[in-house]
């Protein structure tokens, strides 16, 4: 029976892939299809909670939703797809062992293909960036960042009272964060608050000795939430003593300093890089049309011109049907009255990725004779940003909230959006413990420096063209 069933193969168990499979498990009878997932980890990472893993407020496993329990009917392949052959209907998978070591290669065939490999941290051609900057997209990076900051405090506490010692102390006590979008702002706000609560445990360091600098080439903070909430977030950051420099970026990054585009040299050993994302490089290798690096799909999330292939989430440019389309005159030869409409792509958020996963599952099931296909259309419900403590900003159904009200909404939203009850209970328990007990300041050194480098942590070094 297994061999005669059509095989639905999903690449990537992020918000889109996970929710697609969850819906397919519910929607399709077992005999209708075999479900296969290729993903480098055995969990879905609930990324909005990654900054809290970096501060230690949350245990890393509590932000990781176990695929084994959540997707019981799906055959999981622990590995990463390095190439897709659209004509042969196969993918090449690098199989992964403990610690992410490649243990072999396998070819998997498919009858229906779902491309949901998400995004990677966007890097520019900035000298030294790849080697010295720390990303904040994976658990590996979050755990390393926390240990790294604790090491800086440890070492700064024991530098000798000499000129060289003073210079080293200044480097170790300066953190430069790049990117004032929600990832950068959440990370820097929460980490700054955390270091402030723990730094007085060292004998020679006062919390105010740590210098925080947030820079962005844009001229606003948190543009995703609009000017009003952006200003609120900026004021919270400034009240915490974080210097904000807008209109500048990084010129280069070194082991002991960074140079900004305005020529300023900042001595530092910590550069946090949260300057946005770009589509996973896998989709660029397909030879299909891209829009700003994202795979072009139609409103039903199908990849045009290839049968039985769908894509969603950060890797796909899904037309946002709730927005105003732009029209172009096509000369009248294509049977549509001479006008083609183009919608802007949906933003790269978990909210869209999750709902696209569900819509995509419906359409895949329809291609297997179960139900009817529909276009994806979803009105944005809003966005939240947790700034640590009782500070947060949220825009929910057009209403702007700040402070404790926003914090309550943010936490309630995450508890609801986490897909498994055990994760919800653990996260809620972590929050209660973090409120009641002092932060545990221990380094477990689980991640080695080489593993924390962005290309390695986000596994972008596996694609042939990027190797
Ligand atoms: C720190 C942080 C905080 C965020 N906070 C919010 C927030 O508060 N609200 C919000 O809406 N959005 C937030 N986002 C954005 C949100 O995480 C993304 O929009 C969302 O994860 C996109 O879902 P996705 O399924 O497309 O991709 P992802 O969730 O990135 O998942 C992609 C999956 O594919 C796997 N994969 C990658 N390459 C391959 C391959 N070659 N083969 C097999 N598998 C592969 C990956 O390992 C991963 O499991 C945040 C992002 C970050 C980094």
Tally of extended strands? Answer: 27
Name the structural class. Answer: alpha/beta
**How much is the average pLDDT?**
94
Query: What composes the largest sheet?
Result: 7 strands, mixed
Say which molecules are bound, naming each kind only once: flavin-adenine dinucleotide
- Kindly report the oligomeric state of this protein: single chain
Which regions have little confidence, pLDDT < 50, spanning 5+ residues? none
Notes on the protein architecture:
This protein has 467 residues and is an alpha/beta fold. It has 2 domains: 7-121 and 278-367, FAD/NAD(P)-binding domain (3-Layer(bba) Sandwich), CATH 3.50.50; 129-275 and 381-462, FAD/NAD(P)-binding domain (3-Layer(bba) Sandwich), CATH 3.50.50. Helices cover 30% and strands 25% of the residues. The strands form 8 sheets. Strands 7-6-5-2-1-8-21 form a 7-stranded mixed beta sheet. Flavin-adenine dinucleotide (FAD) binds next to helix 1, strand 2, helix 2, strand 5 and helix 7.
């Amino acid at each position: 029976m297994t061999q005669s069933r059509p095989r639905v193969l999903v690449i990537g168990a992020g918000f889109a892939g996970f929710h697609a499979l969850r819906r397919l498990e519910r929607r399709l009878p077992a005999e209708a299809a075999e479900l296969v997932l290729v993903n480098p980890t055995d969990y879905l990472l609930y990324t909005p909670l990654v900054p809290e893993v970096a501060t230690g407020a949350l245990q890393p496993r509590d932000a990781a939703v176990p695929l084994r329990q959540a997707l019981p009917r799906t055959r999981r392949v622990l590995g990463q797809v390095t190439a897709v052959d659209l004509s042969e209907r196969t993918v090449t998978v690098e199989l992964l062992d403990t610690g992410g070591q490649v243990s072999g290669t396998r070819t998997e065939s498919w009858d229906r293909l779902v491309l949901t490999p998400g995004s990677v941290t966007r890097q520019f051609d900035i000298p030294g960036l790849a080697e010295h900057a720390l990303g904040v997209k994976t658990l590996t990076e979050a755990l390393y960042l926390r240990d790294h900051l604790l090491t800086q405090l440890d070492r700064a506490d024991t530098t000798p009272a000499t000129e060289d010692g003073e210079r080293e102390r200044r480097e170790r006590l300066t953190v430069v964060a790049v990117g004032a979008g929600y990832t950068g702002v959440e990370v820097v706000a929460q980490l700054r608050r955390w270091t402030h609560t723990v730094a007085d445990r060292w004998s020679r360091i006062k919390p105010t000795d740590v210098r925080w600098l947030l820079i962005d080439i844009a001229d606003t903070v948190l543009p995703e939430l609009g000017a009003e909430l952006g200003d609120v977030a900026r004021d919270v950051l400034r009240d915490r003593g974080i210097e904000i420099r807008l209109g500048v970026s990084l010129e280069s990054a070194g082991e002991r300093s960074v140079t900004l585009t305005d020529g300023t040299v900042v001595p530092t050993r910590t550069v946090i890089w949260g300057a946005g994302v770009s589509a996973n490089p896998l989709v660029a290798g397909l030879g299909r049309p891209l829009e700003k690096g994202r795979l072009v799909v139609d409103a039903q999330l199908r990849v045009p011109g290839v049968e039985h292939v769908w894509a969603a989430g950060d890797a796909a440019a899904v037309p946002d049907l709730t927005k105003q389309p732009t029209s172009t005159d096509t000369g009248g030869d294509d049977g549509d009255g001479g006008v083609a409409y183009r919608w802007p792509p949906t933003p790269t958020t978990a909210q869209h990725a999750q709902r696209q996963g569900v819509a995509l599952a419906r359409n895949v099931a329809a291609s297997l004779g179960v139900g009817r296909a529909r276009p994806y259309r979803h009105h944005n419900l809003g966005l939240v940003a947790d700034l640590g403590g009782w500070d947060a900003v949220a825009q929910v159904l057009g209403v702007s909230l700040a402070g404790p009200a926003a914090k309550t909404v943010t936490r309630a939203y995450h508890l609801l959006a986490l897909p498994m009850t055990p994760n919800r209970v653990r996260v809620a328990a972590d929050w209660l413990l973090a409120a009641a007990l002092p932060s545990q300041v221990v380094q477990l050194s689980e991640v080695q420096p080489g593993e924390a480098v962005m290309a390695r942590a986000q596994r972008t070094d596996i694609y042939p063209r990027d190797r």
